[in-house]
Amino acid sequence: MEMETGTKLQCPQPSRAPQDLSEAIKEATKEVHTQAENTEFMRNFQKGQVTPEAFKLVMASLYHIYAALEEEIERSRDSPSFAPVYFPEELHRREALEQDMAFWYGPQWRLAVPCSPATSRYVQRLHEVGRAEPELLVAHAYTRYLGDLSGGQVLKKIAQKALGLPASGEGLAFFTFPGVPNATKFKQLYRARMNSLEMTPEVRHRVLAEAKAAFLLNIQLFEELQGLLTPKSQDQSPPQTLGLHHRASSQGQEPSLDEVPQGKAQLPSQSSGPLLPWVLTLLTFLVATVAMSLYAL
Fold first, then answer.
1. pLDDT mean over 70-75
2. Which pLDDT does position 245 carry in this prediction?
3. Membrane among the record's keywords (predicted)?
4. Quick one: average pLDDT of 61-86?
């Protein structure tokens, strides 16, 4: 179309729609996800190389992490920055993990469940976010829960077969979501709710950064144990051991960094030879949980 003067009218160009938050998180964590996905540890776990001892340590870490996460979610349940993605009946894992702790550690599990320094740091970060920056909590909830609904189901089958666990699901309650009959549809609902959250560009940027931080906190859980695979653990000196802290109270309070001893607590006495497979399979499970989960988000 031309005006009488002969000049052309310029049609406005459509602006590019902003990327959905769920897609933005997936993109922001792509690089670190690829690093974890290509590790030898993940491939080993997919082969079913897991022991009961290693699995118990993994589940203990998950218990502490989800207890802290869900404590902070409850604190923010009515906040506009989280309320749309508040699905306690469908997603919350603490009760299921308590069942698993009783299975793996016995009736006095609250006194026996260990908490490593890296787990404690993860717990501390969740409390920091929930109390000071609750608008970032969605990054942790999304990367954990939707991952559990995706890659976690594959890991459940692998662990069940490798550990010879009963078909009834005992010891694996964490992986069962009775409130989610259709995982695919629920994940679509969750993403839609999350993408509807109103946030400024600055908050959105911090949410993406926190999603990467959540991934790295997971990776630190197994990096902490990687020292057991160093040459020092192969020589004649006493084997390195995990800095594990056992909860001293049955009141359900979460550990703080100050409660974690600086020294190295001893695992049950054994040579470094039998210990290495435990650690290798533990590392494998943690990497697989993170990598497979985010891949399926």
1. 98
2. 63
3. yes
4. 98
| Domain extent listing, the chain | 21-228
Q: Which H helix or E strand runs over 114?
A: strand 114-115
Q: What pLDDT band is residue 243 in, cutting at 50, 70 and 90?
A: low
> Is the per-residue pLDDT at 110 higher than 80?
yes
Q: With 60 as the cut, is the pLDDT of residue 32 above it? A: yes
The token pair that represents 229 in the structure block: 């695979």
Distance (Å, rounded) from C-alpha 112 to C-alpha 114?
6
The three-class DSSP label of residue 295 is: helix
* 237: exposed, middle or buried (Cβ count in 10 Å: 0-12, 13-18, 19+): exposed
| CA-based nearest residue to 100, from 179, 163, 187, 180 | 163
Given a contact cutoff of 8 angstroms between Cβ atoms, the answer to whether 59 and 174 are in contact is: yes
> DSSP assignment of 232-292, as one string?
GGGSSSPPP----EE---SS-PPP-GGGS-SSPPPPSS--HHHHHHHHHHHHHHHHHHHHH
Cite the DSSP H helix spans in 76-141: 88-91, 94-105, 109-112, 117-132, 137-141
Mean pLDDT lowest among 47-61, 81-95, 240-254: 240-254
Q: What is the pTM of this model?
A: 0.77
Residue found under tokens 């800095």: 243
177 has pLDDT over 90 = yes
First CA to last CA across the chain, in angstroms? Answer: 47
User: What gap in Å lies between CA 281 and CA 132, rounded to an integer?
Assistant: 36
Which one-letter amino acid corresponds to residue 43? R
Fold for 21-228, please state it: Heme Oxygenase; Chain A (1.20.910)
